[in-house]
């Protein structure tokens, strides 16, 4: 399941803000990483329109460095012209207490099991080192289901690299929409997204954890490449990095990508029957590849057209 770590960033929004809030990185990011030189970014944007309806489709990163300036030009104009914002989750923070409770129930192993069960001695040693780097008490990680442990440890690495859910594009858009009194809707709930991961079987969860362990040393470059692809608007490259192996796992790919993309495309198609302008922002990994949201829209006779952002 190569690139599983990357998939967690652009996949479910709940795997960033809520889990990172529950298991916050105890060590602050070094000052050199908190105030780097601002860089312009030109992420991809699409438009679906008819005579009286315009729907913008924007791919987000749920965790981002603080120095990326992306909310300008065509992206800013499209958002400001929109009557409403549609996200993966409408109000993630409001769901926080319930999601934390779900993580404490669905995310914990039975008393007789440990997260390291089934790992080789080499993998156990690597996991021990990763946990030590995370600053999270080892006994807490040992009690986690592999899916939750994998996410928590990965998010710890992302935060060390200066990627923060507070800087995520969807988080920023949500704040701007509420400040402007724009309605904010959601495709899913946080509980549903937790359910996606909790429904993985033991073998799938173990593969996810092993992938996290084995990719740990190479993740820094992969994350840098991912941010660069997003910043340049190359979502096909980004989606390939995130989802190549995920799509080769039929059950997981269907659960986390294909079914959700089709559901969101159905919503957009239905919304086209109403006048107005909507800004739709979902994880960037959903907007590239043969089973992307745009691909499902095209099957419905709708033609998303790229908007020039640079």
TrEMBL record:
InterPro entries: TraB/PrgY/GumN_fam (IPR002816), YbaP-like (IPR047111). Transmembrane segments: none annotated. Keywords: Signal. The keyword Signal applies. Residues 1-24 form the signal peptide. It holds the Pfam family TraB_PrgY_gumN. This is TraB/GumN family protein.
């Amino acid at each position: 399941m190569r690139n599983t770590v990357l998939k967690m960033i652009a996949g479910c929004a709940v795997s960033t803000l809520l889990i990172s809030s529950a298991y916050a990185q105890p060590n602050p990011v070094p000052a050199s990483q908190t105030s780097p030189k601002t860089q312009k970014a030109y992420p991809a944007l699409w438009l679906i329109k008819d005579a009286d309806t315009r729907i913008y489709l924007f791919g987000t990163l749920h965790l981002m460095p603080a120095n990326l300036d992306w909310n300008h030009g065509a992206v800013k104009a499209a958002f400001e012209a929109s009557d409403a914002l549609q996200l993966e989750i409408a109000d993630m923070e409001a769901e926080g207490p319930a999601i934390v409770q779900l993580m404490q129930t669905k995310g914990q192993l039975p008393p007789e099991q440990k997260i390291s069960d089934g790992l080789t001695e080499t993998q156990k040693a690597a996991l021990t080192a990763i946990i030590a780097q995370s600053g999270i008490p080892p006994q807490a990680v040992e009690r986690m289901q592999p899916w939750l442990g994998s996410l928590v440890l990965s998010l710890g690495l992302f935060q060390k690299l200066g990627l923060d859910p507070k800087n995520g594009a969807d988080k920023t858009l949500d704040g701007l929409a509420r400040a402007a009194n724009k309605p904010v809707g959601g495709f899913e709930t946080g509980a549903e997204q937790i359910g996606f991961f909790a429904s993985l079987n033991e073998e799938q969860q173990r593969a996810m954890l092993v992938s996290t362990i084995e990719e740990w040393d190479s993740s820094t470059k992969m994350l840098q490449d991912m941010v660069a692809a997003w910043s340049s608007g190359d979502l096909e490259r980004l989606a390939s990095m995130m989802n190549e192996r995920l799509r080769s796992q039929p059950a997981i790919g269907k659960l986390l990508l294909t079914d959700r993309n089709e559901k969101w495309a159905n919503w957009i198609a239905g919304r086209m029957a109403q006048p107005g302008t909507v800004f739709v922002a979902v994880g960037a990994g959903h907007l590239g590849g043969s089973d992307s949201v745009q691909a499902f829209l095209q099957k419905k006779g709708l033609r998303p057209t790229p908007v020039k952002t640079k």
